[in-house]
Amino acid sequence: MNSPLKGLRVLDLTRVLAGPYCTQMLGDLGAEIIKVERPGAGDDTRGFAPPYLKDDNGNETDLSAYYCGANRNKRSITINLSEKEGQDIIRKLLKNSDILVENFKTGTLAKYGLSYDDLKNEFPRLIFCSITGFGQTGPYASRPGYDGLIQAMGGVMALTGEPNGEPMKVGVPIGDLMAGMFASVGVLAAVRHQTETGKGQFIDIGMLDTHVAWLANQGMNYLSTDENPERLGNQHPNIVPYQVMPTSDGYIVLSIGNDPTFERFCELAGETKLLEDDRFKTNASRVSNREHVTKVLNEVTKRKTSNEWLSELEKAKIGCGPINNLSDVFNDPHVISRKMVMEMEHSKIGEKPLKLISNPIKMNVTPVSYRYAPPLLGEHTNEILKTELNLNEDQIKSLKDKNII
């Protein structure tokens, strides 16, 4: 079976996370990715460690877990973009490329003659996707973008955390990840246009833009009221109860999305008398009386253990779940059944398989594929220069001697 993007060629000038996550997604879907890295240094995330991967003998390698999480299905070539010969190599590689993805600070590639404006006439089919902190226009365009900074400026930190605690960021770099996801969607739409018209285009992805876009219901809560939503800890701004609940031996998540489900919960808990109280009758009234409702229901859920509640709630088809640590997640029978961990061979770690988080997109005709393990720095430089540009050994050696590759 073919992968959906088989045959598409992507020149990947990205590093850290937003860009590499985008190009890994495209690679999983079948595109051929050539990852361009700095000679001698490479992607910054090669040094984002510990943890490092361990080999067969349990010894640490120099391969960071962070880097491996966003760089499979790529071949690595090292090119010095600040040198004209390096820029010439990029242009030669673009002759057979459909897409270029980059996440340098705004204006950086223009210094090297490799901006979209520099390339669009020479490569009219090229889809050029730029991922930056703040986009190509606006008063902040020249600023560098970092995930924690974007989470702060984009509003999510003001929404996250306990009501009386400090603003809190999300526990994973969600600003980077969502920028990469939106970028991949934009690229796929541009590929459709490219296929129909033979023309490329410029895609401008700003991390702050994408962060604002996924404020979703909370963003709409503000736009409809002109009032800043308060931090609610683990509670939902529009639904009650939809939150962490204490049990006699821990905590569970209770997700009751409508009034009939709340009625079933009260019957299960032996608390149908609550339905006679106007403060509990409807979701709107429960939201309006959040503090009282939560206090009462917390005392109800404390009567049983987490396992007792989960078993009974699931039987009654009431939304609930355990609060898993990552060991629980990756050993969960459903996660295992859905094959959300995959294994690849890697030269750095010997016969022991490299475990990676799987792509969650499951298609029955054109499934994702895993072809290349996260590459070593410049691992495919010679191969690419020989097969793509027809350079011989002497030419490659000369480029290396001049620190171009």
| Number of separate strands | 13
> What's the architecture of the largest domain in CATH terms?
3-Layer(aba) Sandwich
Overall shape: it is: elongated
User: Oligomeric form of this entry?
Assistant: single chain
Q: In angstroms, what is the radius of gyration?
A: 25 Å
As for the number of domains, it is 2
Ends distance: 36 Å
Count, helices = 19
Q: Give the strand line-up of the largest sheet.
A: 5-2-1-6-7-8
Given as residue ranges, the uncertain stretches (5+ residues, pLDDT < 50) are none
Percentage of residues assigned to helices: 25-40%
The CATH topology of the largest domain is given as Rossmann fold
Structural class, from secondary structure content?
alpha/beta
Largest sheet: number of strands, sense, barrel closure: 6 strands, parallel
Strand content: 15-25%
CATH class of the largest domain: Alpha Beta
The CATH fourth-level homologous superfamily of the largest domain:
Crotonobetainyl-coa:carnitine coa-transferase, domain 1
Q: Overall mean pLDDT score? A: 96
General description of the model:
It is built from 19 helices and 13 strands. The protein has helices spanning 18-28, 65-68, 84-94, 108-111, 116-119, 147-153, 156-159, 174-197, 207-213, 216-225, 259-269, 278-281, 283-288, 290-301, 306-315, 326-330, 333-337, 381-389, 393-401, and strands at 9-13, 32-37, 52-54, 60-64, 74-78, 99-102, 127-132, 201-206, 242-246, 251-255, 319-322, 341-346, 350-357. Strand 3 (52-54) and strand 4 form a beta hairpin. The radius of gyration is 25 Å and the shape is elongated. It starts with 8 loop residues before the first strand and ends with a helix.
